[in-house]
Structure formats: C-alpha cells, structure tokens
Amino acid sequence: MLTPAWPAWQGVAVLVVLSPVIEECVFRAGLQEWLLRHGIAQRGANLTTAVAFGVLHAIARLQWAAFAVALPALLIGELYGRRRLLRWCVLCHAAMNGAWLLWRTISGGTGT
Question: What are the residues whose beta carbons fall under 8 Å from the beta carbon of 64, sequence distance 6 or more?
C-alpha cells in the first residue's frame, strides 16, 4: 500500500537518481561525445550541449527561466571534457539537483 509520503519520495528519486542518469547519458555521453568525435572542439561541444539542455528544460517546463540550467550544464560539460567519465557528471548533476531540492524545500519556493 502506498503511503501519503510516496509521491514526495518518488519526486526525490526522479530528481536525484533517474534524471541525472538519463540526462547525462543523453547529453554528455550522447550529444557532447558525438560532437567531440566529429571534430568539434571541447568548448563548442560543451556550449552546444549546454544550450540544448537549457532549451529542452525551458520547453518541458513551458518557461524560459528554466533555461538557467544551461549554466550548471556548462560546468558539468567542462568536467566531462576534462575526464570523459560519465559517473562524475551523473554524481555532480545529482548533487546539484539535490541541493536545489533542499533549497526549494527549506525556502518553501515553487519556482524553477
């Protein structure tokens, strides 16, 4: 039987586990790696990937403020460019999502 707290835990699991794994696989190991292997310089591949990440978040949330995720995506992309290790990107992404979730919970905010 599901408890009333289940939806909150489900949201945490999606934000801190599922989303970082899927998004980093698609954007880092997918798009950024593809661009790098096709001769695009690290900075260009990172910028392109971060912009795509931001645009898709803005479209998914139907608000352009969600594009702000492109900034931390640049940091994660830099990490990927230096190490080419997806696990660190997933961990960094999960930590950022966790910090955002904690801040939102503490502040009572409902924004992006």
Answer: 58
- Whether the pLDDT of residue 1 is over 90: the answer is no
Residue 25 lies in a domain: no
| Calpha distance 8→16 (Å, rounded) | 12
Q: State the residue range of the domain holding 87.
A: 41-98
Residue by residue, DSSP assigns 65-84 as: GGGGGHHHHHHHHHHHHHH-
In a domain, 51, yes or no: yes
Distance CA 110, CA 61 (A): 13
Record the pTM. Answer: 0.85
What's the CA dihedral at 56, 61, 64, 67 to 10 degrees? -50
Task: Kindly state whether residue 76 falls inside one of the protein's structural domains.
Answer: yes
